[in-house]
Amino acid sequence: MFRALIASLTCAALMCGTAVPTFAQGKGKKGDDDAKETRDTKGTKRVGKRGDEAPVGPATYTSKNFVVNTDLPPDEARDLLKRLETMLTIISKYWGRPNSQTIHMFVVKDLTKWPPGSLDPEGIPSIMEGGGITLGVVQTVLGKPVASKAPVYATADRGTPQHEAVHAYCILNFGTSGPVWYSEGMAEMGQYWKDGEKAVHVHDVVVEHIRRSKPKSLNEIVNGNERTGDSWQNYAWRWALCHLLANNENYAQRFRPLGLDILLKKGTTFEDVYGSMAREISFEYLFFLEHVENGYRCDLCSWDWKAKSKLAKGSVVCTSTIEAARGWQPTRALVKRGEEYQYAATGQWKLEKEGDECDADGSPGGEGRLVGVLFDDYELGEEFDLGVYGTFTAPGDGQLFVRCKDKWNDLGNNSGKLALKVAAANAMKPLPNPRDAKPKGAAKKPDPDARKDSEKE
Ligand SMILES: [Zn+2]
Predict the structure, then answer these.
(1) Residues with CB under 5 A from ligand 1 (ion)
(2) pLDDT greater than 70 at residue 43
(3) Fewest CB atoms less than 10 Å from the CB: which of 68, 133, 139, 222?
(4) Where are the domains of the chain?
(5) Which of 90, 74, 89, 82 has its CA nearest to residue 30?
(6) Are 96 and 86 in contact (CB under 8 A)?
């Protein structure tokens, strides 16, 4: 929702004009107290009578960093300010720069309630389209871009004011919000950001669009000749890329400095930072697109590129620790198509905080089972069942990865880990069956007779 109009070399009007289709609007309760506190924009006192009567026209609300003009009912307006302040705290911490100027916003629920002349004509078309626009005036002072103002005009849906506020923050504090993919991707993230929240939390249509469509390539997103305000679908791809890079453990550490370089116009590009990891990012990006759902955790599904695998043959036993709360994890075993392998998984894990523990055979319904997949040349094969103990014939060549079978968007509440061994089936001797081993705690417990003795005492 962001179109750059270069008015002159030193002055840019920055606009957003894309509507994400019909999202539920925040509904708060209306109350007497709220109504009394409203002020008219032009200084005329407006007094709300009963709780169900919203102010007739726009009123002004202020908080630490915002001055918001809106025709939203007072309680919704204050709720909006609270959300804006929370988001601003998060993003200014992320970019390491406290907000230096008040952000002025016009948030419109019903355009007919706004007197003529109360809105900048440049802001009205975006609002009529159900989107928003940030009109940034950026001047160059001593060679540096300095924004004198960046008023926001936004439709009063759940996400647009927050999206636009990210643009306004960037323009006011950095003089730019970066190239389209970064500017819009981060603004979309801002719309959804919650402190400490790593899970995907977006509108369902965004998830549906991403999962149903042919994936847009990274190159198309980053280097395509795209403009802001093009389509909500393009915003979905930009969000996906930024969300992945900001949350995946392999890329997050480089993403923040890249963003800062972009905002500070240091000339650093996506390729400079990630060019050497292009295949890895592409793989994880496509994997993310395939599995994205609300609740999905990029951090828990980060691919382990550093693990070294060795060919499971002869007396080689590949050992690994597999956590229930992560996606695919390396067993360090390299397998060959058609060869038979043996495995043994010791330990218990859980799929719910309060749930029962199970072993690698999982529940009768299959949840919690140890499952495998082969990774070869940045491609994944079909998932296949493993378990506590047994053999399998490799369906292809590749590195064996495994995980605890669970919904992809429900890994965060899993706990426990297994010790896994994988070896060739024709190894000199079979792996010990974990079921034959004494339970781990058994050695520590006194044997029944000894307990009887102690109870007698
Ligand atoms: Zn935008």
Answers:
(1) 1-2, 16, 184, 187
(2) no
(3) 139
(4) 1-177, 194-303, 310-441
(5) 74
(6) no
